[in-house]
Structure formats: C-alpha cells, structure tokens
Design brief:
globular; Chemotaxis Receptor Methyltransferase Cher, domain 1; 7-stranded mixed sheet; 10 strands; alpha/beta; binds S-adenosylmethionine; Rossmann fold
Length: 282
C-alpha cells in the first residue's frame, strides 16, 4: 500500500544524490551546479517531487532519466533549476550596434542571417526583428532569424508570441503600435506578422558540436547563458560559433560575460560584441 504524501512533505538530499543531479545537468545542458547550490536544488525541486508524489530524490532522478515521457521531465527540471529571465531590448547597446553599425555594413546586399541561440521566451529574437525592420527602411531585406533554446516550454511561449502587457511596458508607443496587436481584454499583446514571419523557432542544445544550421551566419546572439557554463564548455561553444559565422560576422554575448580568458580567434569590437575578422571561411 503506498503512503499518501502531503503537500508539506519535506525532502532531503544525500551527497550522492546531489552529485547525480549535478552530473546529469552538466552532461545534458552544460550548466554547472556548484556544491553550495544543494539547498537551492532542494528548494526548487521540492514542489515538483510533491506533485509527482515521489518519496525521494533518487526516485525523482530515475523519473527524469528513465521516465516514459521521453525527456520532457528533464525540461521541467531545467526550467526549475536555471533561469529563463529575459526582456525586450535587454542590454540595449547591442540593438543600437545592430541598427547603427551592422545594418549599414550589410546594406548593399540587403540580406542578413541571424541566430538567437538561447532565446528563452522570444523577447530577444523579436527585439532583433524589430531593430532590423526599423533599420531597413522602405527597401525590404531578406532577413531570417533562427531562435533556439533547450527548453521546449519557453520555445512554445516564444512561438506563440503572446506577452502580458507588463512585459512591453518599456517599449515606446510607436513600436508597440507598429509591431504588436492588442488582445481583446487589453491585458496581452501579440507579435504582428511583420516580425513573427521573420523568426523560426527550433530546439537546439548548445552542448552539441554540430547544429542543424547552414553556416554563413552574419550574427549570433548568445547572451546570458554562458555564465552557467564552465570555461572549457564556453571555449568549445564559442569556437563552434566561429565556424558558423561568415567572415566579418559578429557574436553578441551578455554584459556580464566575457571572452577574455578563452582561447578563441574572435576580436572585440565593442563591449561584449566580437567579430570574426579578416579570415577565410573555415
Ligand atoms: C537567462 S536566459 C537568456 C535569454 C536571452 N538570451 C537574454 O539574454 O535575455 C538563458 C536561456 O538559456 C537556455 N539554455 C540553458 N542551457 C542551454 C543549452 N545547453 N542549450 C540551449 N539553451 C540553453 C535556458 O533554457 C534559458 O532559456
């Protein structure tokens, strides 16, 4: 007879269990959990264990690894342990650089290929799309933005393109009007076709060394995710990005991240913006 678990059940984790979760998270997502994150892991996952009526972290580990739902639980766990925090026009200098430097550089070809590689719920790729639309003026460009993430939950939100009004409160009213539809109740907005059709969403794990993308990208955004990876993983990732960029292509990283200590041929061109300069395509 199974004992019913109450919604106040308390769980504790052994060192061995913690190390299993640590290894799983690292192997599957590249995210490093330091030893002092033990309490955080217990507090973030407790609700989930209660909901699934599991008795221990070992049971939960087995559920994540061998569960019948084909990796879905890993996504749930990832979302609980990592942050999906993002914003429209987060780190605005990047969008200014795109509008003022990169768009004029590519104006003669009017073609741009962009990858937003840890796009969370989509604010980043839609901000890129808005910037490109505003900067291209009357002449249409051939613009494709690939937006990817490891979490299928955030990706489906991103693909819906529907946001609480509060999420767009800092956009100026001209932008809001041009690029978003207002919901009937007035509490939500939806990305309009003009930007939505520029973005394609796909699940991509940055830990894979080969991505389902043709090389020849002009820009890669990889912002506020590398901070969770160790140096070795960051170096591998950044050098993979290098292969996927065209000569003179750009890499954008988060403002609290840096390539300074990594062995990579990228050259800095502005704070947290790097370029693959003057080299043959490799
Ligand atoms: C803090 S959000 C950053 C969102 C956006 N780039 C920004 O700067 O606002 C980090 C995102 O990285 C994703 N992520 C974590 N590990 C990943 C991996 N191995 N491959 C792809 N995405 C990953 C998470 O799911 C999360 O949505």
């Amino acid at each position: 007879m199974s004992m019913a678990l109450s919604n106040t059940t308390h769980y504790s984790i052994t060192d061995e269990e913690f190390s299993q979760f640590k290894t799983l998270l690292y192997d599957e997502s590249g995210i490093t959990l330091s030893e002092h994150k033990k309490t955080l892991l217990v507090s973030r996952l407790t609700k989930r264990l209660r909901k699934l009526e599991l008795k221990s972290f070992t049971e939960y580990y087995n559920y994540v690894v061998h569960g019948v739902n084909g990796g879905e639980e890993f996504v749930q766990m990832l979302d609980l342990l990592s942050t999906n925090k993002t914003d429209f026009f987060r780190e605005p200098k990047h969008f200014e650089f795109l509008a003022q430097t990169i768009m004029p550089e590519l104006a003669s070809q009017r073609k741009i290929r962009i990858w937003s590689s840890a796009c969370s719920s989509g604010e980043e790729p839609y901000s890129i799309a808005i910037t490109v639309c505003e900067a291209m003026g009357a002449k249409k460009w051939d613009c494709k933005i690939l937006a990817s993430d490891l979490s299928t939950r955030v990706l489906s939100h991103a693909a819906n393109g529907i946001y609480e009004k509060d999420r767009v409160k800092d956009l100026d009213s001209a932008r809001l009007h041009r690029f978003f539809l207002k919901g009937k109740k007035g509490d939500k907005v939806k990305a309009k076709k003009e930007i939505a059709q520029m973005v394609a969403f796909k699940r991509i794990n940055l830990m894979n060394d080969d991505y389902p993308i043709k090389s020849g990208l002009d820009l890669i955004f990889c912002r506020n995710v590398m901070i969770y990876f160790d140096k070795e993983t960051q170096e591998r990732l950044v050098n993979n990005f290098y292969r996927y960029l065209k000569p003179n292509g750009y890499l954008f990283i988060g403002h609290s991240e840096s390539l300074q200590w990594l062995d990579t041929p990228f050259l800095p061109v502005a704070p947290t913006i790097y370029q693959k300069k003057d080299v043959d395509e490799g």
